[in-house]
Amino acid sequence: MSFAAAPPLSGTVRVPGDKSISHRALMLSALAVGTSRITGLLEGEDVLATAAAMRAMGAVIARSPEGLWTVNGVGVGGLLQPEAALDMGNSGTSTRLLMGLVASHPVTATFTGDASLTRRPMARVIDPLMQMGADITAAPGGRLPLMVRGACPAVPIRYRLPVASAQVKSALLLAGLNTPGITHVEEPVPTRDHSERMLKGFGADLTVEVENGVRHIRLHGEAELSPQTIEVPGDPSSAAFPVVAALIVPGSSIRVENVGINPTRSGLYEVLRMMGADLAFADQRVVGGEPVADIVVRHSALTGIEVPPEIAPAMIDEYPVLAIAAAMAAGRTVMRGIEELRVKESDRIAAMVAGLRAIGVAVEELPDGMIVEGRGGDPLPGGATIASLLDHRIAMSFAVAGLASRAPVTIDDMSPVATSFPDFVTLLDRLGAGQGR
Ligand code: S3P
Question: Ligand 1, atom 11: nearest CA belongs to which residue?
């Protein structure tokens, strides 16, 4: 599919539900006793993989024609033995969080996934879950396919996160739910805190204390969770694509409604403002324990900056699209301290460097990041085909680049977009982007 220079983008749109919150909403609802109700759930492939796994382990999950999801949970400790392997598709979040859940239940589960997921490192969850007593056998290098035999009872541990990872933190907290005693996770670098917020919302006994800059999260197990009604806000990581599109297509002015702006997720928006973006959070409110706003953004002349590496965990999924904004900025943008990008759905540093070069942007690859030479607002040359590498965010980033390019940018395979943002192209078209195609 090709994306070509767009006329000014305008209009008001909503992006799909937050992927991180959607996974957690299904998992915690499946562990509560009774019926939870979820609206705004992301109906993308990753979240549907989580739903299928929770069904396979006993939860009863239904969707009304209006999009209301109801989940009848089995209770903490009540997960059933799945009859077949759990196919996680492309979803690292499903895999790592569910490994945590299974680790403290008397069940054995096999996890499989696609070619991208099979390459991703799982040792970061295997190691601490084995310390809790789970028995895990994985393919060489700690990869999928792998089998988790849960420990019952599991042993509570105190664990300092060696990588800044919300997935590892969440896997341990989920394992802690059915573990007697206190599971204690130390987080030297804060990561997204949706699990902590939602666990408290479901009634778990969880405390967070900050000592000398380290977050100490303590969860009392054998928790009892009570069913909830959850409204999932729009995903700030998905909103990033129309927002950057509006910033780089001259004359644009758009509003993206109902977007989560949790400070552990909103780093991109801070960085764009530092680059000179005309971008505001309007009508700020709290929905279901999460801060939410409408993002109002206009085309802006951007300036390259050194992105502070400490902001990385709050925008870890947004570097690909930031690199597109950087390509349109005046001067260079330096992104460092993001070696984690090499183990996402693709090696996102390598993918962005190769793709930017292919569309005529000068970029230097660093072991832990990249330096993009901005074109000062001049259109990008474009005129290349980009391999999306089973990575939704690579596909969407270069689609956005196409909207500000002289010659169209072709994405070889847009199907990965269905993991997190099934209506991405329709939404761009609603803003007017399709007129150039
Ligand atoms: C996620 C955490 C992040 C992020 C991923 C979703 C989550 O991964 O990249 O898209 O929902 O917890 P890491 O925990 O590996 O940084």
Answer: 20
